[in-house]
User: Fold these one by one.
Assistant:
Number 1:
Amino acid sequence: MYSEVYLRLEPLGLERVAAAVRAAGHDVRILDLQIFRQDDYLREIDDFAPDAIGFSLNYLANVPEVLDLAKETRRRRPRCFIFAGGHSASFIAPELLDHAGVALDCVVRGEAEGITPRVLEAVGDHRLETLPGVVTRHGAGPGPTLLESLDHHLPARDLSRRRRKYFIGVLDPCASAELTRGCPWDCSFCSAWTFYGRSYRKASPEAAGEDLARIREPNVFLVDDVAFIQADHGYAIGREVERRGIRKQYYLETRCDVLIKNRELFAYWKRLGLHYMFLGVEALDEEALRLHRKRVTPNENLQALEIARELDLTVALNIIADPSWDEQRFAAVRDWALTVPEIVHLTVATPYPGTETWLTEPRQLTTHDYRLFDVQHAVLPTKLPLHRFYEELVNTQAVINRKHLGWAAVRGAGALAIQALLRGQTNYVRMMWKFASVYNADRQFGDHQREVRYELGPRRPLIAAKLRKGELFVHAAPAAAPRPATG
Ligand code: B12
Ligand code: SF4
């Protein structure tokens, strides 16, 4: 739903894996099914006749689609080696293999630039299931290993086609880049930190500069979970950007306390082209922030918004709606959102594999349909009747959005919107009228009534036992990794 309206960004992880596989001597193609249709995929495998196909499965909601495609691929190309990897695949490898039957040969857990060329070498060999991070129906190798350096395997952007389709808001077209990997915080609803064992690694300023210099698009989305945690790293990349004369407009995601602490760094990047940021606000009250283990106060959130306004940065922020919300609670968020100039998004609190709440949430799930685990649907019991909950959710989002959609917003975006149109880029302008057709209470309610063919495995909530965070990790925590203060 998100990528139907607000943005569509390139599959950076897949491009990095593709770069590693290509460097090992293979002929590689990428097909992004956010842009292409399934028919295009089937034509492509007939035409290219690959020996191996890897599916990138970052989002849980895409599991059924990937399983069906893997099965159809197996039917058409029985001898092809078919595998999957990515963020969500890494947390649910055995259950994916169960659903897939013979359609998937293995799942590759964790970051995969290093291991995928070795997986391809081991095709047809019993050593396959002894490789780090590899899980097959017959066994699993040791846990995945972290890359020694982020500087290698710069994304093979030349392999992604129809790049004009990638955009985020008015940054149209827009490429993506990664300056750091991992997150040292530990919010209870998030799996970004559990994937990398709460580690945090940086690309060298030279490699980051080289990667940014290779980008053709005028705009760049920085995919880092929390951008510019360490000010010296942010300045070093900035100086590299200046030295190379790179001129782009940037969009990034960061935390409120990081913006407060590194205000001058963000001001410097504003001069380099930073215009937009996602700020992880998540909740307005102290109690909810504590439950999310956000480690910031409501006051810090407001202070960060103030700083962003002073720096003239356009901010989008997210609030997590709990299924227990009633009309009054939605109304309170609406009232607040209408008083601030920022773009406010709502997501729905969703425990999913890899998050701490998957194990600690005491409420029962109302569904195990993977497709509904997209943080836009309620998978926990709602206090309001379900359809009424969606009416409140959509109505709240629509009221808030009114100030950011339509011609007034296009006029507000000014030169950037006009430049995009002059370049023939219409993603942004089209998005302005799409909201009502995508976010719709009947549609969201109807999504719960569909036939369910693949179900997420059962949850084993912790009752009395204390959670050991390491149990959640895909990558084990590195022994002596320096961890920035998390406040
Ligand atoms: C950038 C990002 C986005 C971008 C989209 C990027 C894209 N086109 O894929 C935007 C902003 C659009 C976005 C949106 C959303 N996102 Co997001 N996003 C991220 C983020 C911060 C980084 C992903 C990234 O690019 N990392 C850098 C690359 C290099 O790493 P990577 O993709 O993980 O790839 C590595 C491995 O996964 C693996 N790998 C990847 N592909 C493949 C393929 C094969 C064959 C193999 C072997 C290995 C492999 O190797 C790669 C290299 O090491 C992650 C958090 C995280 N740290 O992972 C959340 C995350 C993936 N997003 C999340 C969510 C919830 C969403 C939204 C649903 C949020 C919303 N408000 O609606 C939407 C849905 C978007 C959609 N497409 O439907 C959740 C996923 C939850 C889940 N389990 O499903 C995450 C984990 C964040 C979180 N807080 O928990 N997101
Ligand atoms: S700070 Fe952001 S990326 Fe890090 S754990 Fe919290 S929500 Fe996830």
Number 2:
Amino acid sequence: MDYDFIVVGAGSAGSVVASRLSENGRHRVLLLEAGPSDRRLWVQIPIGYGKTFYDPRVNWMYRTEPVPGFGDRINYWPRGKLLGGSSSINAMVYIRGQAADFDEWEALGNPGWGWRDVLPVYRRIEDHTFGASEEHGVGGPLHVSEASDQAHPLCQAFFRAGDELGLPFNRDLNGKSQEGVGHYHFTIRNGFRLSAARAFLWPAMRRSNLRVETLAQATRIVFEGNRAVAVEYVQRGERKQARAGRETILCGGTVNSPQLLQLSGVGPAPLLKSLGIEVVCERTAVGQNLQDHLCYDHVYRARQPTLNDELYPWWGKVAAALRYIAFRRGPLSLSVNQAGGFFRGGPEQPRPNLQLYFSPLSYERTPPGVRALTKPDPFSGFLLSASPCRPTSRGYLQIRSADAFEAPAIHPNYLSTNSDVAELLTGARFLRQLAATRALSAVIAEEMKPGPATTSDEALISDIRARSYSVFHPVGTCRMGRDPATSVVDARLRVHGTDRLRVIDASIFPAVPSGNINAPCIMTGAKGADLILQELC
Ligand SMILES: Cc1cc2nc3c(=O)[nH]c(=O)nc-3n(C[C@H](O)[C@H](O)[C@H](O)COP(=O)(O)OP(=O)(O)OC[C@H]3O[C@@H](n4cnc5c(N)ncnc54)[C@H](O)[C@@H]3O)c2cc1C
């Protein structure tokens, strides 16, 4: 089985890479995906991410090691395991990040990744509902929608609350500035989830030069010297091998790409040797620099109906289902993160450093992080949440054994810096300020969590440590950079010290961008494929 390119992982980035590399018809491309096809009801219906959140058929369902900053709590990490990867199970919020995030990537030694370089890539992949402008593109595969006409009426109270605090309504949170409150944009088209697979891969799968193998988990990259020449994989219990004449491209995501590198002998030598893995290329940085966004919720009982009133009773579920079937509209056609925004936690901040989420629904009775979207609380309730944009805590992950089917040990090291704790405290205080505005206090019956008794900094910090959770944006474990001692890939995404091997996914991000990261992952897929194709010319 000989190919020009082997792409490992059909997620947000991998779907784009495989699609672009097969576009001109000249290259034979093999795409290996550990999970199944994405043609499933709860994947395609937007609200279905509440169901896939705990479905082992389409989800790797990782768990972190005990996190000291969380009082040794273990955090749940869903990751998509199917065509589309995490873009097939995510909450569909579309945020590109701040211009300064990418300028920082460039300043860290990565030429070609500044905002002026990545904005044209975003514009090229987008089909934005706002139409073509300096900021947005149209006609690309990725339709970006906005659902202000369907947003729950309570979102208006949230916007007025922001305004009272000097945080004005921002019609376009992907425009010139993120600052303000507004409706989130979604990767949803005509009431269906628009994962990277649906947008990029489905059309490409008709090409005869692209072969997509599902339920095919790569277990090792085969090297000749330091040159990657083939990939071993297991499909339905059978061990197979495919050869890559030109390149092997890892798109397995922040957990799996460093895992596969380590399994294949590229990683910290002492770790590999201790597990009996032959060292092909010593790369200490593989698995390091792990960073992620945390979120902290305040839960309110409301005086007015919320989405709970629509989705809790059985007749409400039936009505929502009928509305969806007839018109592809209503709560089933949307993410529950209907509104949000970005703000500066203090006057010293040069740009927004905290993100807000407003969900007109609550699931207070379920443990933190669990998305019981179709089983909300039996009373009117909603959530306000704060999430620091650029945390400073750094963790790492590493394989536990040479067995490719054993999950790696994940040490996210959340809340290990004072500044991260202080930022979440600022976020918590801001949520209280929002709740105390005329607009929101009129609709709040009671703060259920953390509750009115939690007032001192100590009490709030203890609640933050007890209830914060990942919003599933881990990045950085195959960091891009110039120095092979501290990074894994160079600015062209080639693995330092190896030949014909690249990583293209969230793991290459040197720093997590401000906001949700599916859009940056898709952009990285498109830009990474450009880099490969340029070198062929
Ligand atoms: C529950 C959830 C909600 C989220 N909500 C949002 C949101 O609303 N907005 C947003 O912007 N971001 C959101 N995210 C984050 C975002 O979706 C991810 O960060 C992004 O999709 C990651 O892209 P990726 O290409 O790096 O990896 P992934 O999309 O995770 O793709 C990796 C793919 O590689 C496959 N793979 C891994 N190892 C192997 C192997 N050895 N062999 C073969 N295949 C392999 C995996 O099965 C997977 O399909 C969310 C994530 C989750 C999990």
Number 3:
Amino acid sequence: MQRLSARPHHVGSPYDKDNAEWIAAKLKSWGLDAKIENFDVLFPTPQDRLVEMIEPTKFTAKLQEPPVAVDPTSNQQSEQLPVYNVYSIDGEVTAPLVYVNYGIPADYEQLARMGVSVNGAIVIARYGESWRGIKPKVAAEHGALACIIYSDPRDDGYYINDVYPNGPERPRDGAQRGSVMDMVLYPGDPLTPGIGAVPGAQRLALSEVKTLTKIPVLPMSYGDAEPLLAALKGPVAPAAWRGALPVTYHIGPGPAKVHMRLKFNWDTKRLYDVIVRIPGSGYPDEWVIRGNHHDAWVNGASDPLSGTVAQMEEMRGLSELLKQGWKPKRTIIYAFWDGEEPGLLGSTEWAETHADDLQKHAVAYINSDSNGRGFLNAQGSHSLENFMNGVMKDIQDPETKLTVWKRDQLARIERAPANGKREILTRPDLRIGALGSGSDYTVFIDHLGIASINLGYGGEGGGGGVYHSIYDDFYWYTHFADTDFAYGRALSQTAGTAVIRLADADLLPFQFGDFAETVRGYVDELKKLDDDQRSQIVERNREIDEGAFIAAADPRQQYVPPPKDPVPPHLNFAPLEDGIDALTRSAQRYDAARQKATASNAQAVNAKLIETERDLTDSAGLPGRPWFRHMIYAPGFYTGYGVKTMPGVREAIEQKRWQEADDQIQRAGRILTKEADLLDEATSALGK
Ligand SMILES: [Zn+2]
């Protein structure tokens, strides 16, 4: 980690290439077959950044993170990428400022009740609650001309813990870089949606790209944001909107007026993915894939190197096993991705380039991205939930010496509400979360339908406060995170065990009871969402008719009551309920048959099992975003990395598009029925 984080290593930097070559050389020295695959992608960097307040007082934002004396890499200023949000458009704007809290759709509804419009304004939003790219997108939909995103000390600064270098959290002038690509349309190189960014690939013109922001956007520290927020007047922000700066949070608009100017170098840069292949001895055409990225925003000790080095250690372990004569039955592919930070570039371009092979051969993808002290966080395909529980039962938590599974179970029981404790105590498997987006698994699960798992330890010691800043470096990591790398070893053991078991199992360890039960939960949630939404609309319309909103508001403050909504039609959930019933029955039959299975006919069954995640995708994709093909898991259109389960149906209901909701229910029902049929085929293949 010290070697890889010694210099800034973002996409296009000399040290990014150097790191890739060093990783590849290390792997070769262990006897592994490592290659570098290149892609050429759009990666804009700042040419000109200016934010100044011109009224009622003058102030120019620093937009610069100062070195810290005790931290030996924080002074590498000539190599550090400036503080910016990549894939913002160029632009120059002068306009009054409006504070929009987290800048998510619910915040704009609240602004409308207060009679505040952002039309023609510059908005200032705080980081949190959504993927950062959602903030400029929603702001632009409401007519804003530009967007500032700042880190409030309430969320990852002195309100949480001492700030760096005395503690782990964000210092006054620390800022969060990051992508604002509209990744919920498609991730990867903006110029090559759906295809690999290889030489000769058909590239879009910049003017045709849909994933750039519609308005200029720039991040800043709370040191820079404080004078801007302090200069706002207008209504006082609602209690939940207030941060931890020593000012009264007002909303505006104005009197603060801001001048903002952004210009980027719209360059193409080269990616260096390090790819290792360990050929399978029994089933070489079935591939188990494992990855973690190596590029960072700056020195990136925590994000991503804490995961990268755990993956290297895992590979060193595998290389020792190979030397002792171990031969995995399946082919294992390890990847060290480049370009994750700007927009999952390295993984997406690689998987798009090799899509045909991956669809034929990929069994599963296991991802990690950053690691820390604490509990194992596992999310992913629920057909692998039972399998991952098995892995967790065989790994020791380095600090408590309990198994990772037992520690997680006890902690969940302790934290659960009174009515939630029993399930955790009695359900054989701990639940794993669903995947939205946010790291390199996205193309595998969402686009190609490859069963995926994301793994990482964390939850102890905080540390969100140096995320994507110059302070996420070796000094910070070895003082405040997994300081003795004990959890780095635990991640190697966890992911390595999963890879070895997936590669060597004669019958693939997929189980469908957990999956069917989880999807039934999603169907129940949809029905409840529909019911709740209808009764809310009816109740709200009644209150509007009776003048309740006006009566409850302060007559001396401006207040705009919400508009009446038409009462929605009743949706017919029967296709979805028939689908989930069929899936539940088929899953029970398969899981029962699997208990008695012998290895002799495993290959015929495995061919079906590999298809079970593919069959949850639909080549037409989600409404308005065809790149996203998975019908059960997807990032939300207005949340980004937050997962939307059964996204087609859910988002249609949430956005009150009733005809579309009806169509999507039928489509999701067909997907579940098809999955049930496939499981029946797997069951009969088991019996033969
Ligand atoms: Zn990362």
Number 4:
Amino acid sequence: MSAMFVNIAGLVLIGLIVWWFWRSKPKARHAAGGVIDVLVEGGVYTPARIEVAAGQPVTLRFLRKDPSPCAEKVLFDDLGVSADLPIGQPVVLTLTPNEAGEHAFTCQMQMYRGTLVVK
Ligand SMILES: [Cu+2]
């Protein structure tokens, strides 16, 4: 009876550990149908490197906190996509990158720089 209890306790413990690691995974650099939030602040996009799967639509939500005009646009040159980013208002961009490789995204002066990695 007590051996059975130990087994169950062990299983519960393993379950908790697995759950903990699953829960504490870093968020959404890899897109799987979700929305990826990109913060525009302090001269950097956060995250600056976003991995997505080729041929799958990906939704990026840019939130610009930087008031400088430098940050007012985001351009995906390779993909022919751009957007204006008003301060403090999330802007949603949905794209479907078909070609694998690295696609830069930048502000209009290319001071802000990020990479969309398509696999
Ligand atoms: Cu700029």
